[in-house]
Design the sequence.
């Protein structure tokens, strides 16, 4: 649990999604609709957004799911590491290095995939809000 590759992807994804959600609020207050079906009342794209607290709850639930996926990946990676280290004791350093590389790569990839679109959208929202004079 103290391994950053377990919690970092979830923390980064939470931050990105919350930035997107927070920067979308001025638009919702001015009558805009939500394009992401995950955050609409009907569950369909281009509809009314869910209330702020509900969106925040969904984002937290998504982060918890991401944390679980990372924890499972790290657990299975450590099991394989232990098995391979016992089977090939002369290659323990290589096995440990490959295990770390796998966990870091998985965590980095997961964080990137889960956050890239939200960070991009948050930046667009901020720029558009400034252009429209929204606060």
Sequence:
């Amino acid at each position: 649990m103290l391994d950053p590759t377990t919690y970092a992807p979830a923390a980064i994804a939470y931050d990105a999604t919350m930035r997107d959600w927070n920067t979308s609020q001025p638009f919702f207050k001015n009558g805009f609709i939500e394009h992401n079906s995950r955050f609409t009342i009907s569950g369909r794209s281009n509809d009314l957004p869910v209330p702020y607290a509900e969106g925040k709850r969904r984002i937290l639930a998504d982060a918890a799911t991401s944390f679980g996926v990372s924890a499972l990946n790290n657990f299975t990676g450590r099991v394989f590491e232990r098995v391979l280290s016992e089977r090939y004791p002369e290659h323990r350093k290589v096995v440990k290095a490959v295990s770390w590389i796998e966990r870091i790569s998985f965590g980095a990839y997961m964080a990137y995939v889960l956050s890239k679109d939200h960070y991009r959208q948050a930046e667009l929202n901020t720029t558009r809000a400034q252009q429209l004079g929204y606060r």
